[in-house]
Design goal:
The chain is of the alpha+beta class. It is built from seven helices and 13 strands. The chain has one domain: Sandwich (Jelly Rolls), CATH 2.60.120. 23% of the residues lie in helices and 20% in strands. A seven-stranded antiparallel beta sheet has the order 2-11-7-13-5-4-3. The longest helix is centred in the first third of the chain and has 16 residues. Bound molecules: ligand 6CS and fe (iii) ion. Fe (iii) ion (FE) binds next to strand 6.
Length: 299
């Protein structure tokens, strides 16, 4: 089951010319042990099995207010208007995401180094870690658009050159996540199956995919098969909750037509032993503000 991290062998072929069959995950989900951090054996077992862990009250109401203030500051900072790190909604031009927030906000940089996050990321990944990607997502009310079904790892493998799914994302809710305001849906256990996608990666794909992903999304038949097998859970919870989820879990979110925005801070930790190589299915690597190549261990 555990395949040594051999970046030259592609266990996760995708962006195929014709549909491929599902592949079993060739790597563990949890790499560390109970002794390596705050998750106890039962929590590690649950994460290995489901591919995600929800922690309520992960950050305090005061921190939620501070992070939200940063999110609003970034969304309205005139210096970011023409910055590639700011992604707007296709239909309305409203701010959808800001990337590489640790470089733009000392508050969020400190969050990424907080032991509450680092200790858990290191334990799940069984090594020192660095930030592969960070973003704040706004999912505004009324016209916020969601993210179609996808595996993050499929994109990070194909377009960023991430060898194995030895990365974990931490999404911290800054607004209440209701079932109806574009909450994240996950297929529990889907992280143990790799779903290859059809379609060659266009050049400069990220210019459009971060607004609306069309390439690197599974077929409707494959989504149906995965949903039938795993079911669909929804991440709901108060502001301050954290969703830790495996890089390869199948997830997506609906649009948000309610008056209630669904904002979060999204931090992706990668193992320093899983550094990006050449893209496995793209002509050129994505820019570093989307996929960092600085593997200096986070302290
Ligand atoms: O392409 C990416 O890296 C981003 N896309 C999505 C829809 N989720 C993961 C990541 O932020
Ligand atoms: Fe995603």
């Amino acid at each position: 089951m555990t395949t040594a991290l051999d970046p030259t062998t592609d266990h996760y072929r995708t962006r195929l010319a014709t549909p491929g069959s599902f592949a079993d995950r060739a790597h563990p989900t949890v790499w560390g042990t109970e002794a390596d951090g705050p998750f106890d054996a039962a929590a590690l077992e649950a994460h290995e099995s489901r591919g995600f862990t929800i922690l309520e009250d992960f950050v305090t109401p005061q921190e939620v207010r501070a992070f939200s203030a940063e999110l609003d500051r970034l969304a309205t900072d005139p210096r970011l208007t023409d910055d590639a790190r700011l992604v707007t909604e296709k239909a309305t031009g409203e701010v959808r995401s800001v990337f590489e927030v640790q470089a733009l906000s000392e508050v969020l940089d400190a969050l990424s180094r907080d032991p509450r996050l680092l200790d858990r990321a290191r334990q799940l990944l069984g090594s020192e870690v660095y930030l592969h990607q960070t973003r704040v997502n706004y999912m505004p009310g009324f016209k916020g658009t969601g993210f179609y079904w996808h595996s993050d790892f499929e994109t990070w493998h194909a377009e960023d050159g991430m060898p194995a799914p030895r990365a974990v994302s931490c999404s911290i809710a800054l607004t209440p996540n209701y079932p109806y305001n574009g909450g994240l849906m996950v297929m529990p256990g889907s992280h143990r199956t790799y779903v290859p996608c059809v379609g060659e990666t266009p050049d400069n794909n990220h210019a459009s995919s971060l607004k609306e992903q069309r390439i690197g999304v599974p077929s409707e038949d494959d989504i149906t098969a995965m949903a039938e097998k795993h079911g669909i859970d929804q991440f709901t919870g108060p502001a301050g909750s954290a969703l830790w989820f495996d890089a390869n879990i199948m997830h997506g979110s609906g649009n948000n037509i309610t008056p209630y925005p669904r904002s979060n801070v999204f931090l992706v930790f990668n193992s320093v032993d899983n550094a990006l190589t050449e893209p496995y299915a793209a002509s050129a690597p994505r820019p570093e503000h989307i996929a960092s190549r600085d593997t200096t261990p986070l302290r």
